[in-house]
Amino acid sequence: MAAVRRDIAPFLQRVRAFLLGREHTVALRFEDGLADRTQPQPELPDGPSHIYSANYYCTRDGRREVQPPIDLVQQQKVLDANAGDATAAASKASQQLLPTPGKVYAWD
Questions:
Q1: Which residue blocks in 6-107 are alpha helix, DSSP H?
Q2: Contact (Cβ atoms closer than 8 angstroms) between residue 24 and residue 18
Q3: Are the beta carbons of 87 and 93 closer than 8 angstroms?
Q4: Are 49 and 19 in contact (CB under 8 A)?
Q5: Dist CA 39 CA 18 (whole Å)
Q6: How many CB atoms lie within 10 A of CB 16?
């Protein structure tokens, strides 16, 4: 047998519905208005801490994996210096093949 929902008398329910212009939703929670509890357990994949042997806190703490920020300008200079030798010969060859513009008019 389902639980009886607590509410006001049926006559007053009709008066309330007329005055509201809609059916009133009771804020109380009853078992028949809730989701079923027969849902299966979730199947989650194993994480980094699922093995207990040799699983020290310092090796699984994500905060310890954070490194200080790198200077992108310095990194780019290093890359340019390493790649500069290889591209210098290629840029000379490409400059010889491309036409050069004519004289530039000085407006001043």
A1: 10-20, 57-60, 72-97
A2: no
A3: no
A4: no
A5: 39
A6: 14
pTM higher than 0.85: no
User: What phi and psi, each to the nearest 5 degrees, are found at residue 19?
Assistant: -70, -35
List, in order, residues 6 or more apart from 8 with CB less than 8 Å away. Answer: 16
> Which tokens belong to 34?
């809730």
pLDDT tens column, 68-77: 888 888 888 8
Query: Which position has the higher pLDDT, 9 or 101?
Result: 9
26 contacts: CB under 8 Å, gap ≥ 6: 5, 6, 7
pLDDT, tens only, 69-106: 888 888 888 888 887 666 665 665 555 555 566 777 77
> What's the rounded Cα separation, in Å, for the pair 77 and 82?
9
Tokens of 32: 């028949």
With CA atoms as reference, report the closest residue to 24 among 13, 8, 11.
Answer: 13
| The predicted structure's pLDDT at residue 54 | 67
Q: Which two tokens stand for residue 102?
A: 């004519």
